[in-house]
Amino acid sequence: MASATIIEPSAVLTLPQPLVLDGGQQLEEVRIAYEAYGTLSPAKDNAILVTHALTGDQYLASPHPITGKPGWWSRMVGPGKPIDTDKFHVICANVIGSCMGSTGPASLAPDGAPYAMRFPVITIRDMVRGHVALLDALGIESLHAVVGGSMGGMQALSLAANFPERARAVMVIASTARHSAQNIAFHEVGRQAIMADPAWRDGDYYEHGKGPEKGLSVARMAAHITYLSEAGLTDKFGRRLQDRAEKTFGFDADFQVESYLRYQGLSFTGRFDANSYLYITRAMDYFDLAEEHGGLLAHAFARTKARFCLVSFDTDWLYPTAESRNVVHALNAAGLPVSFVELSAPFGHDSFLLDVPALDRVVEGFLG
Asked: What is this protein for, i.e. what is its function (predicted)?
């Protein structure tokens, strides 16, 4: 493959045009933070867009600057890996509304103060508009594929439906075309925990040195339970007790699973913004691809010619296999080529992020 400039990690691009949102408002001078790996071909036809989940970011396959941990999909993306950067130019952008460099509630508004809760309501489709604007700025008209898991899968479906000419292949892993009432309920518990924290200050906490860390920690704990499976929790922790001599953040944790959840919650507050959590979870709750297209999901895919692959996991109760089958039926009704597989894994919803060799084979086979 002929050589081309490899974009350095953590690039930030300011969109040349305002970003018009579903709510009728527009954002000026939108910044999109992204990472890119591999070499873009002279024809610009080997690009893959990987879209991230709720608490993910652009650090797909390189160390996270805050936690120092490997990229969230470093096991999947890289030279010789299923998403092979020796073959493909892989892009991952932080969604608008988030907090790792793209424009969000913590960004400065035109008046010089953080947007906070003045930030406009956003949707999954708005996030995808930001991605498409980034691709336009990079001169990439058509993607070899878009790949996403969880909320990333929602973005992949939205791109296929609303920008049908932009991707030749679409891979959706552990996701859904519409948020269920149960998932909305779990998100609302998290949002209420954040807003009940006195340090939230109605969202205006940026100048006070400390945000609603306790509320955000509880929100993360509640959400993290939904990412796991009962069998996985039982195997890892069971009802095993903590060492009574140990303390967890200043108070007793009787069970090991309690200590684990508290650690997950507290560590999360160091890398994520509470207001971003409010906005992104609401965007996920609003997501209903069928409703956007006259009430029939098959209508959403009427204009695309992409081929699709959907993957679910047998222990995922957040987005169970029935959700993927619903999308597959709609794609069949639209006459589109689609493959579908339910994989067995013990990890629940988080299976798409963990060591599931069968998923590696499916990804490599579909993209190849």
From this structure: Transfers an acetyl group from acetyl-CoA to L-homoserine, forming acetyl-L-homoserine.
